[in-house]
């Protein structure tokens, strides 16, 4: 599956009111779908029985159009819809992960593994977001070479696996630890919201739960690295 962005739509449909025909396997990101709707771009998904035009927004007032968005290629829903609310929170979580990548260890004094783990975290969130849009189960590779369940095990017994005791982040541990802990806390918030809004989507809720565990492990590894200790991940 290939997700089209706003830039892709601009390149293929430079004028408002035009038509975008999707190729098999193409989907729109949430922001791209909203962008297309705002410009009255008709999206034609290509299904097994041929391409069928998606309902347009002709006749709607600007206020009505702004209050609605695309749930998928065929369904337009209010922006207060549970799935749209969750997508927004996942989008914010991904933005936070990206910001953390740009701000973490700016002078490259810590082992490169830690930044690589942050890259894995961003990919983890992107997979959850893609799963919410597609309705499929998220396919998570893990972090730092360990799979999802191994990371959860490490988070429960950090002294055994990484030689670190359980601890809470505070200002004395510095900005790197604060960034990772901030991302962990936001992940927990999104997890709770996912459980509240979409209790049936256990795959997404499970992926978010395990992500918070992985980020706790990353926080402990960051503390260890700052103390000059080994940060090798092992299960």
Write the SSE topology.
Layout: E1 2-4, H1 6-12, E2 19-21, E3 26-28, H2 30-38, E4 42-44, E5 46-47, E6 50-51, H3 62-66, E7 68-70, E8 76-78, H4 82-103, H5 112-134, H6 148-156, H7 158-161, H8 175-197, H9 202-226
Parallel strand pairs: 1-3, 2-4
Antiparallel strand pairs: 5-6, 7-8
Helix pairs in contact: 4-5, 4-8, 5-9, 6-9, 8-9
Question: How is this structure best described in words?
Answer:
By secondary structure, the protein is mainly alpha-helical. It has 2 domains: 2-78, no CATH class; 82-226, Hypothetical Protein Ta1238, Chain: A. 54% of the residues lie in helices and 9% in strands. The strands form 4 sheets. It has a two-stranded parallel ribbon. A two-stranded parallel ribbon has the order 2-4. Strand 7 and strand 8 (76-78) form a beta hairpin. The longest helix has 25 residues, at 202-226. It is elongated, with a radius of gyration of 21 Å.
Outline of the structure:
The chain is mainly alpha-helical and 235 residues long. 54% of the residues lie in helices and 9% in strands. The chain has nine helices and eight strands.
Reading the helices and strands in chain order gives: EHEEHEEEHEEHHHHHH
CATH superfamily of the largest domain: Cobalamin adenosyltransferase-like
CATH architecture name of the largest domain: Up-down Bundle
Side by side, the strands of the main sheet go 1-3
- What portion of residues belong to β-strands? 5-15%
Q: How is the CATH topology of the largest domain named?
A: Hypothetical Protein Ta1238, Chain: A
Radius of gyration: 21 Å
Number of structural domains: 2
């Amino acid at each position: 599956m290939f997700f089209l962005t706003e830039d892709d739509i601009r390149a293929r449909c430079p004028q408002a009111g035009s038509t975008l025909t999707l190729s098999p396997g193409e989907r729109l990101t949430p922001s791209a779908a909203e962008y297309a709707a705002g410009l009255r771009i008709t999206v034609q998904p290509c299904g097994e029985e041929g391409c069928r035009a998606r309902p347009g927004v002709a006749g709607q007032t600007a206020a009505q159009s702004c209050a609605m968005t695309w749930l998928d290629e065929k369904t337009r829903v209010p922006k207060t819809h549970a799935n749209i609310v969750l997508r927004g929170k996942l989008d914010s979580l991904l933005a936070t992960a990206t910001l953390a990548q740009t701000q973490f260890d700016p002078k490259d004094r810590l082992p490169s593994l830690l930044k690589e783990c942050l890259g894995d975290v961003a990919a983890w969130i992107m997979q959850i977001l893609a799963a919410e849009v597609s309705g499929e189960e998220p396919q998570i590779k893990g972090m730092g070479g360990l799979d999802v369940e191994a990371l959860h095990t490490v988070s429960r017994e950090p002294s055994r696996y990484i030689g670190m005791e359980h601890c809470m982040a505070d200002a004395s541990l510095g900005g790197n630890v604060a960034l990772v802990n901030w991302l962990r806390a936001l992940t927990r918030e999104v997890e709770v919201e996912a459980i509240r809004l979409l209790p049936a989507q256990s795959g997404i809720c499970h992926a978010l739960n395990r992500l918070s565990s992985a980020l706790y492990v990353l926080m402990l590894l960051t503390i260890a690295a700052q103390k000059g200790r080994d940060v090798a991940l092992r299960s």
